[in-house]
Amino acid sequence: MTTPRQSERWTEAARGYLSRTTPVVPPIYQCTTFELDDDSYRDIVEGGGFGQTWYTRFGNPTVAWAADAVARLEGGEAAVMTSSGMAAITTTLLSLCRAGDRIVAARELYGDTRDLLVRDLSGLGIRVDFVATADLGQWEAALAAGPTAVAYAESLSNPQLRVLDIPRVAELAHRRGTRLVVDNTFASAFTVQPLALGADVVVHSATKFLNGHSDVVAGVVVADAASVREVQRRVVTFGTCLDPHAAFLVARALHTYQLRLGRQADAAARIARWLEGSPEVMEVRYPGLGSHPDAAVAERTWRSGRRGAMVAFVVGGGNDRAARFLRALKVVREATSLGGVETLISAPHNSSQFSYTPQELDLAGIGPGLVRLSVGIEDAAELLADLDQALRRTATPAAAQPT
Ligand code: PLP
Fold first, then answer.
1. CA of 4 to the centre of ligand 1 (A)
2. Hey, which residues are catalytic here?
3. Which of 14, 184, 313, 371 shows the greatest Cβ crowding within 10 Å of its Cβ?
4. What is the mean pLDDT of residues 363-386?
5. What is the C-alpha to C-alpha distance for residues 127 and 121, in angstroms, rounded to an integer?
6. Which atom of ligand 1 is nearest to the CA of 87?
7. pTM of full prediction above 0.70
8. Residue 360 phi/psi, 5° resolution?
């Protein structure tokens, strides 16, 4: 009798278990490669290998499970996970654009996305023109100015919280044969579904609300099956695939997605209303407030009553006061990133937008004293008390409130 190979022994045991059991959560296929037989060789040759289970960079069951779950959340036909949000954006844009093409992009963008457009894609011969997220006239004029491969924007801009009018910009783009790519990280799929409103591709930093536990860096691209296949081919060649263990964590976090987001958004709305009444706060930006310049767009296009869990506000006293205020917080944590179960706060000028020049900050609406709050799942009253004590402790004498 010959000794079975190690893999055969494992396979026999595993097949025995798998034939009798169905796990209620996706197992982690922490595995780079899968045994091949005649059928799998045929599938690979005929199907190009993308999304197939033979080598994890092409496809992996745990990673595919996470992608399908996000596709359902976004109401998309298909999705592909990537190694980060930036990987999702880069892989998408390099799938849709060639040297000589043009992108019309919103000028209010996450700092690294802007860097990618300005420094990297322009270096590859892709021209980028910027417009104001909320100015439909600028979108129309820029799209009419010449052939455009991609219109690119954030559904809710980081950190100004300007709202993209997705149906109108999609209509302007499609009239010119341009595809609309929307980064839905900041608003979240809980709040708005860009594909249903006319966007062609949605990208996310899954690092944020989708995973929500500040322990995974991941991204995802959602679109129709043919477009996702094109992106997936580049995930393979650029090597921007997600690790199965990270995908498992994202998949696990999605079980509580609606619960987390519901609680986070309720607390954000309450905090935004409270901040608006604080004499220490010069301006509050939250799309659920009547004072928000894009409140009507959010009302018309976003899901009923849902306005997200991000709040931006301007404290009196400029960036120095903002820095002291951030340090005085005890429950809210001073850190970059967003979308986690813990409430985080940061000053964009020296975190998410650190690469902007003073002129670019000004043009992007990031003025002195602006802070960005990502509301977590803590008790809202505790968060309000913390914000209150830090604002009072750091008040300038002239503006100090009686304690
Ligand atoms: N898009 C937005 C709106 C973001 O805020 C970020 C990160 O903060 C990214 C993309 C990039 O995501 P990641 O850090 O997962 O690469």
1. 48
2. 57, 110, 183, 208
3. 184
4. 95
5. 7
6. 16
7. yes
8. -65, -40
- Model confidence over 249-306: pLDDT tens digits? 999 999 999 999 999 999 999 999 999 999 999 999 999 999 999 999 999 999 999 9
Average pLDDT over residues 205-224: 98
Name the 3-class secondary structure at 108: coil
Ligand 1 centre distance from Cα of residue 44 (Å)? 33
Q: 3-state secondary structure string, 279-321?
A: CCEEEEECCCCCCCCCHHHHHHHCCCCCCCCEEEEEECCHHHH
Cβ atoms within 10 Å of 26's Cβ, excluding its own: 19
What average pLDDT score do residues 21-44 get? 89
Closest ligand 1 atom to Cα of 217: 15
> Which phi and psi angles does 4 have, rounded to 5°?
-65, 150
For a mutational test of ligand 1's pocket, the pick from 158, 161, 373, i.e. the residue with the most ligand atoms closer than 8 A to its C-beta, is: 158
How many residues are present in the chain?
403
DSSP three-state, residue 153: strand
Q: Whose CA is nearest to atom 12 of ligand 1?
A: 85
193-219 per-residue burial string, b: 16 or more CB within 10 A, e: under 16? bbbebbbbbbbbbbbbbbbbebebbbb
CA of 68 to the centre of ligand 1 (A): 21
CA of 91 to the centre of ligand 1 (A): 14
Residues in contact with 380: Cβ distance below 8 Å, sequence separation at least 6, in sequence order: 266, 267, 270, 271
Ligand 1 binding pocket, CB closer than 6 Å? 84-86, 110, 113, 154, 158, 183, 185-186, 205, 207, 217, 219, 352
